[in-house]
Amino acid sequence: MPGTGCASLQKWHVYHVWCADWIPPHYQYCICVCTIREWFLFINSEPPQGRKARAYAITISNHETHFLKKPESHTPTAPNTFADDRVAKALENPDNDLGKLAPFLIGRIKCAVETNPSLTDFQRLVMLSDDPVPLN
User: Fold this and answer.
1) CA 22 to chain centre
2) Which residues of the chain have a pLDDT value below 50?
3) What is the pLDDT of residues 28-43, one digit of tens each?
4) DSSP string covering the chain, please?
5) How many structural domains is the chain composed of?
6) What is the pLDDT of residue 73?
7) What predicted TM-score, i.e. pTM, was given to this entire model?
8) Is residue 7, in this structure, part of any structural domain at all?
9) SS3 per-residue string spanning 86-105
10) φ, ψ for residue 104 (rounded to 5)?
11) In a domain, 2, yes or no
């Protein structure tokens, strides 16, 4: 469950999480930005729909990672969580940990997080911190 913090989650690692209830059901690439709260940035093949979300989304090319298949993917900078145990289930298979993002991609995300006005100061603090920010 979100907020419990899976012991094997690592910040800035990308995970492959099965989302059976999504339409259509598919694996979602997720960048962990908080291990304690289980916050993720989703990597999508299409840019965000909203104008403001699109303005702060990060574009990642397939040559910048070893796991992306499409030429371009987009990562909104607002954190997401899963309401169930699908992250824990994904972590049961070590192949679902796709490894840590390259430092230049982490830097690109941090720059977008710093300037995104839709994030709260707390969200920004959690995502930019190198150390885990406690729940209380």
Assistant:
1) 17
2) 1-3
3) 999 999 999 999 999 9
4) -TTS--TT--TTEEEEEEETTSSS-EEEEEEEEETTTTEEEEEBSS--SSHHHHHTPEEEEGGGSSS--SSEEEE-SS-B--SSSHHHHHHTSGGGEEEEPPHHHHHHHHHHHHH-TTS-HHHHHHHH-SSPPP--
5) 1
6) 85
7) 0.89
8) no
9) HHHHHHCCHHHEEEECCHHH
10) -70, -30
11) no
State the pairing for strand pair 97-100/13-19: antiparallel
Range of the domain at 52: 13-128
- List all residues 6 or more positions away from 74 whose beta carbon is below 8 Å from its beta carbon: 43, 44, 45, 46, 47, 48, 57, 58, 59, 60
Taking only the tens place, the pLDDT of each residue in 5-24 is: 556 899 999 999 999 999 99
Quote the CA–CA distance of 98 and 68 in Å, as a whole number.
10
Q: Is residue 24 one of the residues assigned to a domain?
A: yes
